[in-house]
Amino acid sequence: MADHIVFSADKVAVITGAAEGIGRACAARFASRGMHVLMADRRAEKLNEAAIEVRAAAASSAVRINTCVGDVSRLADVEALKALAYQEFGQVDVLMNNAGTSVPTSSWGELDNWRHLIDVNMWGILHGIQTFTQSMIDQGSPAIIVNTGSKQGITNPPGNPAYNASKAAVKAATESLQHDLRNTDNCQVNAHLLVPGYTYTGLTRQRVSEKPAGAWLPEQVTDYMIEHISRGSFYVICPDNEVTSEEDARRVLWGAGDIAHNRPPLSRWQGDYNAAFAQFKPTS
Ligand SMILES: NC(=O)c1ccc[n+]([C@@H]2O[C@H](COP(=O)([O-])OP(=O)(O)OC[C@H]3O[C@@H](n4cnc5c(N)ncnc54)[C@H](O)[C@@H]3O)[C@@H](O)[C@H]2O)c1
User: Fold this and answer.
1) Which end of the chain has less neighbouring CB within 10 Å, N or C?
2) Of 73, 167, 201, which is best to mutate to test ligand 1, by the most ligand atoms within 8 angstroms of its C-beta?
């Protein structure tokens, strides 16, 4: 199957969180396909380093790589990013609202960390949607908005409730966005939810010093995303070297079953339910 037209030479991608990890890997892949890329991040030095690497990966010297330093949790910064994108390129074919972060939280306490995670992970993505969508529709050509969620926003494991809540909001907002776009007349913009599995990036390097066997590289996420968006998938749920797509589906269905079967929330991690989950085989 041919790749989606938005991943072709001369198309324009805007990527937040592009200084490292998944955003940086996507920027390099896009440039290698001849796409122009506007890379945004809050860390200027790291962003410049990444842009040098992305320019080196570009298909030709005609590929333009621009950078924009800013914080996605600030609406004015995202508006400035959009202004730069249209000034430099006149169009945006791929918008990746990808910047994200993690700090420790617990259900009560760490209020500042809660605010920070909601500001960056949820508001950062909402700012991107609010700022870019209408202009992308007005272009009148195929375009996509890819928002980066997380399995933690779907299955809600114990450990970091604010991260989970921020990513659950991204899932809900992106699902609604896709519904609203497909019900808008003459709209050629689509939305996708990118859900990486365990991926070795700046975010996960905080916890381990070398790549764990179970983790994917960010380039694998990029290739999986291009393939599955090209196939028309809204939910791009990446496996990793430990968790298969079938196992992801089992976990999602068990989590939904907490509601349908009136079990306690997060039952997968609770006593007897834990054993029941081990035996659980979803019927297709
Ligand atoms: N790595 C994983 O295992 C994993 C799993 C699921 C989801 N994700 C999500 O993938 C996305 C990319 O993360 P990554 O794993 O590549 O991590 P990363 O830390 O390597 O990259 C994230 C980038 O976002 C930037 N950033 C953070 N806060 C920002 C802000 N307020 N404004 C602008 N830029 C900001 C960082 O500077 C960094 O360059 C995130 O949304 C993350 O939550 C990652």
Assistant:
1) C
2) 201
